[in-house]
Amino acid sequence: MADRAPADRQKAVGEIGLLEALATTRAIRRYTNDPVSDADLEQILWHAGRAPSGSNRQPFRFLTLRNGQNARAAKSLLGQSFRDGWNDKRAGTEGERPYRPSSFVDSMRHFVDHFEAIPVVILVCLERYRDPSPFEGASVYPACQNLLLAARALGYGGALTMWHLGVEDELRLMLGIPDSAALSACITLGVPAGRHGPLKRKPVGEIVFDDEWGTSPSWIAPA
Asked: Is 178 left (phi over 0), alpha (psi -120 to 50) or beta?
């Protein structure tokens, strides 16, 4: 039998138009204490699994961390890694200019300080079938975007991060992740303590060239 979306949740996904979701889905780093229901999490991950992948191999795997014993220990480990990563970034020790006070800085501070309380943390993995390649992300990151858009459609929010890499070895041992699986991303998920969009992004005329590098398209209206 073909795999189908859970029937009781199909209509909810259509409540937000696709273009609206694309234009308003932002990184959500503040969450309420409300849980992500089993049915909604299943729906979100079902849609994540519909993403395209190289040769249609579907190599993405999702390891969910919720309330289990391993999950609590992994969240604690990740929380410290995220705090260390943000402190380094905040101080400019990663080669970047130190951040000035802003709403972004406030949200990041809240994010890392309350990491252990995040309802769902998802480790997005890629089951390798060949030696590591700089192009393998093309087979896993579309699934990450599908996941975030599905979460948006169901009233949740998430943020894709990479600070799990600081404790990758410990996570592998703790969670039994095989060497054949690359830890490609860490996505947090919950009910937003705020809202999505509108987004502040560069005008399309600044990020699109036509015919040659540096030539602005005449068919894009001025911002």
From this structure: beta
